[in-house]
């Protein structure tokens, strides 16, 4: 494999999309150079000039970057986004980050997610963070500000405000009500 191909793969270089595709022998999947999936080991990578060659070699298209050019149904695509949010809620996630990860414009992602899920991606993210915070408040004795940071809301005052807005009680009141029962 040429060094420029490898650099394009590890750098998620979209300028190479369409000029080559790479497959990972251990997974049996092929991707675009810009795919945001985990960087494979170099020795497990094969490079193909086109999609058809990768398919002929029995590799299947990646569900994240869709190198076959087919669009996922909105429901399936939205589930992938929701799963990403569930797994990454503690990280800084914005609409721009989601749009880049899932190859869409911010506007299209927001509109489609809300139509399918009934809530915006931000509301869904906040829900995941609050549910994780509730678990931590019940299961640990960590301070409220630490729990806020662990679920992705580093500013303690903002965390307390969001928590109270979503649950009707402060984090401390929530913890107290759980220990009394």
Automatic annotation (TrEMBL):
Domain HTH araC/xylS-type: 79-177
SUPFAM superfamilies noted in UniProt: Ada DNA repair protein, N-terminal domain (N-Ada 10), Homeodomain-like
Transmembrane segments: none
Gene3D superfamilies (alphabetical): DNA Methylphosphotriester Repair Domain, Homeodomain-like
Top-level taxon in the UniProt lineage: Bacteria
Alphabetized UniProt keyword annotations: Activator, DNA damage, DNA repair, DNA-binding, Metal-binding, Methyltransferase, Transcription, Transcription regulation, Transferase, Zinc
InterPro entries, A to Z: Ada-like_dom_sf (IPR035451), Ada_DNA_repair_Zn-bd (IPR004026), Homeodomain-like_sf (IPR009057), HTH_AraC (IPR018060), HTH_AraC-typ_CS (IPR018062), Me-P-triester_DNA_alkyl-Trfase (IPR016220)
Keyword Glycoprotein: no
Known cofactor(s): Zn(2+)
UniProt protein name: Helix-turn-helix domain-containing protein
């Amino acid at each position: 494999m040429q060094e420029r191909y490898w650099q394009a793969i590890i750098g998620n270089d979209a300028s190479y999309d369409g000029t080559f595709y790479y497959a990972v022998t251990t997974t049996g999947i092929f991707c675009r150079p810009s795919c945001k999936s985990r960087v494979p080991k170099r020795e497990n990578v094969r490079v193909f000039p086109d999609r058809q060659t990768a398919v002929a070699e029995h590799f299947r298209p990646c569900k994240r970057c869709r190198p076959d050019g087919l669009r996922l149904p909105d429901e399936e695509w939205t589930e992938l986004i929701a799963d990403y949010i569930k797994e990454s809620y503690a990280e800084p996630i914005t609409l721009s980050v989601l749009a880049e990860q899932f190859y869409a414009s911010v506007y299209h992602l927001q509109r489609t997610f809300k139509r399918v899920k009934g809530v915006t991606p931000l509301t869904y993210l906040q829900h995941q963070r609050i549910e994780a915070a509730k678990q931590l408040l019940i299961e640990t004795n960590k301070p409220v500000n630490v729990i806020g940071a662990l679920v992705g809301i580093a500013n303690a005052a903002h965390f307390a405000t969001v928590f109270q807005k979503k649950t009707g009680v402060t984090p401390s009141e929530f913890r107290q009500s759980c220990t009394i029962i």
